[in-house]
Amino acid sequence: MNRENSEQKVAENNDTDQIQTVFIRNRKKKKLSWYTYFLIFVDVCALICLFLAYGPYNRIRELFIQTALSTNSHKYLAYVLYSEEYAQEIANKHSITSAGETSNVDDIVFVDYSDKVVYANEYEEAVLKRDEGNDLYKVVRIIEPTFSGYMAVIYDPTRLHLYLSKSRYGSTVSTMAQETGAKIATNASGYYVNITTYEKYPARSLIVDGEVYYDSGRDGPIVGMNKDGVLMLMNSTANRALEAGMVWAIEFGPFLVVNGEPSNYTGTGGGGIHPRTCIGQRKDGIVLLIVIDGRGGGGSMGASFADLVNLMMKYGAYNACNLDGGGSSAFTENGVLLSHPVSYQGEGERNVLDALVLY
C-alpha cells in the first residue's frame, strides 16, 4: 500500500512539473500588446517632461517659460506646469533695455569699400567683400554654435521697401517676392488675424510709401528708413515718424543697438528662443537684414534677443531692431525660399501682412 501511494505521488509530481513547464513556456511565448507598448512610451515621455520641468536644469525650465510667454496664442503653456507668480519671476530675470530712444541720422555716412582688400576680421570681410558682379547685395550664411540663418548685406538701402500683401488674408514672403521681382525679401511687421474671416490687420503702426497706413496712437518703438536710405529708430507715433522723414516704418521692437551702443540685457534678454527676423545698419550705411531659423528648421532651435544683440555687434551694426519672428520669419532670394519657417502648426511659410523687399 505504501508502495502504491509512493508511486502515485511521484506520478502526481511529474504531472505537476509538466503543467508548470508548459505554463512557463506559454508565458515566455506571450508578447506585449501594442497598447502596453504605447502606455510604456507615454509613461517614459511623462517622466522626461517632469524631469525637465522640475529637475535640476534651470536653463531648460526658464527657456520654456520665456518662449511660451513670448508667443501670441500659446502663453497658457507657461502656466500648465507653473504658477503665474513663478512664471513672472522667471520672466523678470530675463529682460532687455534699449541703449537709447532715438538714433542719430547724421552719424550714418555712406562709404564705398568696393576696393578694400584687407579686413579687420571675418565678420568685416563677410560684409565688405562683395560678390563679383553684384553691387546691390550679397547673401551670407550665418552659422553660430546654437543657431543658424541667413543675412542679406544691402549696399544700396534706398532700394529697400515695405510691401503690403495684395490679399486681405495675407501672402507668403515668397509670393510677395515674386510679385515685386525682389532680389531679397523677408517678413516684416506683426499683425492680427480675425478668427472668423481670417483676414489680417496691422497690430501696430505702419508707414508705407510715404503715407501712414495705420497709426496705433502709441509712442512705441518704430524702425523705418528715410528717402536717403538711413535706418531710423525712435519711440514715436506713426504721424510723428512720418514728420521725422520716414518713408516706410514698422512699429516693433526691441531696439538691439542704438547709436553704436548695444542694448542692456539680463539672462537671455527675455522672449525665449524663437525664429527671428531683424534689421540693422552699419555706420557706413550698409544694411544688414537677418533671418534666424528656429524650432528645428534647418537644424536651428532659434535665437534669443541677447543672441541678436551680439550678432548685430559682430557685424558692425550701428543701429538695429528686432522685427516680427516665430513662424512668420522667412528669407527669400530671387523669389526662392532659403530659410526653413516652422510654426506651431508645422513646417512651411505662413501668410503674413507685409514684407521687406529689395527691388
Commentary on this structure:
With 359 residues, this protein is an alpha+beta fold. It folds into two domains: 34-93, no CATH class; 97-358, no CATH class. Helix content is 28%, strand content 28%. The chain has helices at residues 2-29, 34-54, 58-69, 84-93, 122-128, 173-180, 238-243, 305-314, and strands at residues 95-97, 137-143, 148-154, 160-164, 184-187, 191-193, 200-202, 206-208, 211-214, 220-226, 231-236, 246-251, 255-258, 261-262, 264-266, 276-282, 287-292, 317-322, 331-333, 336-337, 342-343, 346-347, 354-358. β8 and β9 (211-214) form a beta hairpin. The longest helix has 28 residues, at 2-29.
Describe the structure using short key phrases:
single chain; 359 residues; alpha+beta; 2 domains; seven-stranded antiparallel sheet; five-stranded antiparallel sheet; 8 helices; 23 strands; 28% strand; globular
The average pLDDT value, as a whole number, equals: 86
Q: What's the total count of β strands?
A: 23
The main sheet orders its strands as 2-3-17-16-18-13-14
Structural class: alpha+beta
Number of helices: 8
N-to-C span: 112 Å
Strand content: 25-35%
Shape: globular
Radius of gyration: 29 Å
Low-confidence stretches: none
Largest sheet: 7 strands, antiparallel
Q: Work out the count of structural domains.
A: 2
Q: How helix-rich are the residues, as a percent range?
A: 25-40%
